[in-house]
Design a protein that fits this description.
With 360 residues, the chain is of the alpha/beta class. Helix content is 43%, strand content 12%. The chain is built from 10 helices and 8 strands. A hairpin with a 2-residue loop joins strand 7 and strand 8. Helix 5 packs across helix 6, helix 7 runs parallel beside helix 10 and helix 8 runs parallel beside helix 10. It is elongated.
């Protein structure tokens, strides 16, 4: 928008305010009461007012009458930046996205400072921070992460809204009603603006979690892909070399172990030190169990064992250990098991192999 266009828009806003003020004083032209209301001029330029663009959560909420200076701030700072921000967002996620900030609604929560005086700049900062977090999310999760976010936030829209969700102190995010929502706590609008999507992976995970106990959630699938699959081949190759067999297999039992840990965590009986990120680290610790086991086998000089006739090592979670305190090795039906319990998951992962000699 050029200087002349901005000046015309500002003059139009100023004239609108003058007309409303004179009307409230009984001045100016009056229309007969029976006269039908005329539609607004097609030349008017309201800030984010199309009814279809307002996020569903804010559609019936109270709205503020934005002062002239604030409307100008939004137009000059936010609207000039919005197209470029939407382009960057769309490039990151591989499909067309939009950003829909309901300023008359958001401004009702502006109390002072940044939020009150510069809402356009504040919104720009929120979105720039969100883009940084989305970039990190995509870097870690790749096309699978893009696809999951695009599927869950099906409207491909970023909106803003107030929240009272537990665990959010200043700002956060969620996926709801098909939109990716930047959240702020009442009284904290404009605080920690770059951190809103810091836990985007968790928001994606929460939105896509299934009630099926064995269905791996997004964090678990992502952790397996990033922390287990790229490295387990080297562990298997070393194991096959140690045992002098080309067919020794590794069975992680992800679905069964996930279900066991989820059932335990749902009961709320875990200690304060229990990992709250167990879904995200399922792949990492599954890898650690196998890696550490094979490392000890190599260091202790273990060779081929006829008792492991199925040439398979597996990780499983059981209700109760037979001898160990945290975990133990067991040979059962020709399979070598590393087994632990849900409450001891990810604890002392290198111990089982040291007890292997006791069962051979």
């Amino acid at each position: 928008m050029g200087f002349l266009d901005k000046a015309k828009a500002s003059l139009a806003d100023f004239q609108e305010d003058i007309n409303k003020a004179t009307a409230s004083l009984g001045l100016g032209d009056k229309k007969p009461e029976s006269s039908a209301a005329e539609p607004e001029s097609s030349n008017s330029t309201p800030i984010n007012t199309p009814a279809t663009s307002v996020a569903p959560s804010t559609a019936g909420a109270p709205k503020a009458k934005l002062p002239l200076a604030i409307r100008k701030n939004i137009r000059d700072v936010w609207e000039t930046a919005q197209p470029d921000l939407e382009r960057k967002l769309s490039d990151l996620l591989g499909v067309q996205w939009k950003i829909d900030i309901d300023f008359p609604y958001i401004y009702t929560f502006a109390e002072s400072g940044y939020a009150k005086d510069n809402p356009g700049g504040m919104a720009k900062s929120y979105v720039e921070g969100a883009l940084n977090s989305i970039e990190k999310y995509v870097d870690r999760n790749g096309e699978d992460g893009q696809s999951e976010l695009n599927k869950l936030a099906s409207s491909h829209t970023i909106v803003m809204d107030v929240t009272s969700k537990p665990g959010i102190n200043y700002t956060g995010c969620e996926i709801a009603n098909g939109a990716l929502r930047i959240l702020f706590v009442k009284g904290s609008l404009g605080s920690n603006v770059t951190d809103s999507l810091e836990y985007l992976s968790q928001a994606v995970n929460d939105a896509g979690t299934s009630s099926d106990d064995t269905s791996l959630d997004f964090n678990a699938r992502s952790g397996i892909k990033n922390d287990y699959e790229p490295k387990i081949g080297a562990v298997q190759a070393k194991l096959q070399k140690i045992l002098a067999t080309p067919t020794f297999d590794i069975k992680p039992n992800f679905e069964q172990n996930y279900a066991a840990i989820k059932a335990f965590a749902t009961k709320g009986k875990q200690s304060s030190s229990y990992r709250s990120d167990w879904q995200k680290t399922l792949g990492r610790f599954t890898y650690d169990y196998f890696h550490d086991f094979v490392e000890v086998m190599e260091n202790k000089g273990f060779g081929h064992q006829r008792s492991v006739e199925k040439n398979q090592i597996a990780l499983r979670i059981v209700d109760k250990l037979t001898k160990g305190n945290y975990n133990e090795p067991v040979i059962e039906n020709g399979v070598l098991y590393i087994q632990t319990t849900a409450d001891n998951w990810a604890t002392n992962v290198g111990d089982p192999a040291y007890k292997l000699m006791d069962i051979l």
